[in-house]
Amino acid sequence: MRLIKQSFERDGSGFVTLFPEEPEDMWYAYNLIRPNDLLRASAIRRVTTESSTGSTSSTRVHTTLTIRVASLDFDPQSSQLHVSGRIAEETKFTKVGQYHTLDLELQRNFTLEKDGDEAWDSVARGIIKEACDPVKSADVWAVVMHEGLANLAVLTGARTVLRQRIEASIPRKRNGRAGDHDKGLEKFFQTTLETLLRQIDLNESKPILLASPGFTAASFHKFILDTAIQTGNKALMAQKSNFVVVHSSSGHLHSLNEVLQSPEVTARLKDTQYAREGKLMDDFMALLRKDDGRAWYGPTEVEKAVEQGAVGRGGGVLLISNALFRAQDVAVRRRWVRLTDKVRDLEGGEVRTLSSEHESGKRLDGLGGIAAILTYPLDDLDEEETEPEINNADANGVET
Prior knowledge:
Blueprint: E1 2-8, E2 14-19, H1 24-32, E3 38-50, E4 56-75, E5 80-87, E6 99-104, E7 110-114, H2 122-131, E8 140-146, E9 149-155, E10 160-167, H3 178-199, E11 208-212, H4 216-231, H5 234-237, E12 243-247, H6 256-260, H7 263-268, H8 273-290, E13 295-297, H9 299-307, E14 317-321, H10 330-346, E15 350-354, H11 359-365, E16 370-373, H12 392-395
Parallel strand pairs: 8-11, 11-12, 14-15
Antiparallel strand pairs: 1-2, 2-7, 3-4, 3-7, 4-5, 5-6, 8-9, 9-10, 13-16, 14-16
Helix pairs in contact: 1-2, 8-11
C-alpha cells in the first residue's frame, strides 16, 4: 500500500488517500473502512438516458463517486473488497441518496474520510502505518499434502489464505500394477508443481514449506528438483535452499498449524510476524496451564488487570484480536482502542493485535478475542463483584 496523502485534524477527523498495490492491501482496507465513513473511488455506473422521441438507452460510464459507507463485503480467497452505501455527493450521472457498491481495485487510488470525535484513532493510524510499511513480514508459501490431495496456501503478515486445492485420483499399488500408481502420482506431482509455479515469483527468496504424512512431501521435493534439472529451470533450482520438508498428520489445511510449530519450521520463520504471534499465544497458554495468576483472558478480566497496572512494563503483554476493532458500534470500538492506548502509552506494556485470519488469532478469538500476560500474579479476576449487604435497620435509619 502506498500513502498518497493524509490530513488529520486535532479532533481526530480527517482523510487519507491510499494506493493499493497488491491483494494483501485489500485486507488492510477492509480493517480500515468503517460504516458511516466517506469513501471516494472510481466506479462504473449504468446510466439510462431518454431521447426526444421517448426512447431510452442504457450505457456504462466511468466516474468517481463518494458514498457514505453502510456495509462491507470482503472475499478472503480473491482479496476482493466491495463497499456499499448511499451516494453522498451529486455528480453528472448520480444524485445524493442513490445506492451504489464500490469495488476497490488494485492500482487505483481511493480516499477515505472519517469525521467525528476520535474517528482516526491510534488503531486506524496503526493500520495505515503497517499497510504502508515497505518491509512488512515476507510471505511464506506452504503445500500441505498427501497422495491425491494438495493444499497451496500463503502466509502473510496478516492472513493465511488457501490459494489452490488440487485433487487427483491415484490408483492403489497392486501386485503387478505398481506402474499405474507411479504414473498417477507423477501426474499429480506435475499438476501440483505447475500450480505452485503459477502462484509464486521465482525471483523472490521466500520459504516454501512442503508437509505431508509419510514420504509424500519428500517425494514431491525430489520431483521438483529433478524437474528443475531436466528442464534447465535455473530460477527453480535457485529456490532449492528455500524448500523445507516437514511431517504433518494429514494433507488437509488445518494441519498447517502443527507444521508451523515444528522446530525446523520455527527456526526458518523466527523473524516473521506469524511466528512471533504464535509464540506469544504459546507462552500465554503455557502460563494459563500453570494457573499462577499471570495469564488471564476475557474482556472483564483483562480490563481489571489493566486497571490494576498489571499489564505494563516488565513483561506485560496485551493480546487483542483485530476482529474487536471491526465492531460497528462506535462505543464498543472506542472501548478497545482506549484499553490498548492505556497499556501501550501509559503503562508501557506491549500490545499485539492478532489477525483473526491467522491460526494464532483464531485461538485468541476462542478465548473471547482478548487476553493478557501479566507482570505479576493477580487472583480472582473472574469473580463477580457483589454489592455489600445493607442492614435493614441501618437503611431505615434505626440504631441497632
